[in-house]
Amino acid sequence: MKNFKTKQPGILAVSDLKTAGGRAIYWLFFIILALAAFAALLPAIWTICTSFKDTQDIYNSFSFFPKNLTFDKAVGRISESWKYLQLGDAFLNTIILSAGDLVINVIVCGFGGYVLSKLKPKGSKLVFMLVVWTMMMPNQIRLVPNYISYLAFPFASDTHGVGINLLDTYWPMWFNAGADTFAVLLYKNAFDGLSDSFVEAAKIDGCTNYGVFFKIMLPLAMPIVIYQSITVLSGAWSDFFTPLLVLDKNTVVPLVVYRLQSDSNVQMNTYFMAFVFASIPPFLIFAIFQKWILGGVNVGGVKG
């Protein structure tokens, strides 16, 4: 109860927590949130426990935790599963895909926000309106036109020999990362909060628009860059549908894990271990950026 004295204002004030009713409401919400957190963590814990079980225990035993699990046995299970699954190439390809998504998203969307915020060329209001309008368009409507454009980029034609076939390459995912309209609005909002004097002073010193963007605007909008890094990397690592649509080979982790279910030679505990391996990078992203994830990113708080 000592922490109640330093509690930040919210639904319940400090004065409310001094009453029996206020404390009862506080603990009621605490129990509800604790149960919700447990329900969210239970599938992940069950997956990890199942990956360390013997195959016979998975089908013949109702125990939640693996039986007779030792440190050496756990290390052996991890080593054997990694060698059998051969996920090294898939991890490398997914890292390349995620890095490309991040670079293109920051550069293209960031520069788009900079143009709409500071340069404001003729017709920028119409472009801004179209950007906002595309956010309201369902993804299903864009699915078929996007796929046709991948067949013969950039003409979207079914005529042979016209355009470039981008299927079985990473370019469709990278183009999608550069067409993130929400990211454009985030950068525009951040750049709107920066004084125009930064741009004017840099141009007086002979800096080009590209120099102003990379040397001044992006560093000052670093909270947005960090937020987009978290979002893009997490989304790229877990993206399943787009690679399934455009990639023919088992080149990224989500596709490899998905197609393991049709392999009758893969034992169930090894299959669950693949889930554990695939979950490690998102966990590392959370562990590294948890300060910004839990604390939130003030996308509109950058001031000049």
UniProtKB/TrEMBL annotation:
<feature type="transmembrane region" description="Helical">
    <location>
        <begin position="270"/>
        <end position="289"/>
    </location>
</feature>
<protein>
    <submittedName>
        <fullName>Carbohydrate ABC transporter permease</fullName>
    </submittedName>
</protein>
<keyword id="KW-1003">Cell membrane</keyword>
<dbReference type="InterPro" id="IPR035906">
    <property type="entry name" value="MetI-like_sf"/>
</dbReference>
<dbReference type="GO" id="GO:0005886">
    <property type="term" value="C:plasma membrane"/>
</dbReference>
<keyword id="KW-0812">Transmembrane</keyword>
<feature type="transmembrane region" description="Helical">
    <location>
        <begin position="25"/>
        <end position="46"/>
    </location>
</feature>
<keyword id="KW-1133">Transmembrane helix</keyword>
<comment type="similarity">
    <text>Belongs to the binding-protein-dependent transport system permease family.</text>
</comment>
<feature type="transmembrane region" description="Helical">
    <location>
        <begin position="90"/>
        <end position="116"/>
    </location>
</feature>
<feature type="domain" description="ABC transmembrane type-1">
    <location>
        <begin position="91"/>
        <end position="289"/>
    </location>
</feature>
<dbReference type="GO" id="GO:0055085">
    <property type="term" value="P:transmembrane transport"/>
</dbReference>
<feature type="transmembrane region" description="Helical">
    <location>
        <begin position="212"/>
        <end position="237"/>
    </location>
</feature>
<keyword id="KW-0472">Membrane</keyword>
<dbReference type="InterPro" id="IPR000515">
    <property type="entry name" value="MetI-like"/>
</dbReference>
<keyword id="KW-0813">Transport</keyword>
<dbReference type="Pfam" id="PF00528">
    <property type="entry name" value="BPD_transp_1"/>
</dbReference>
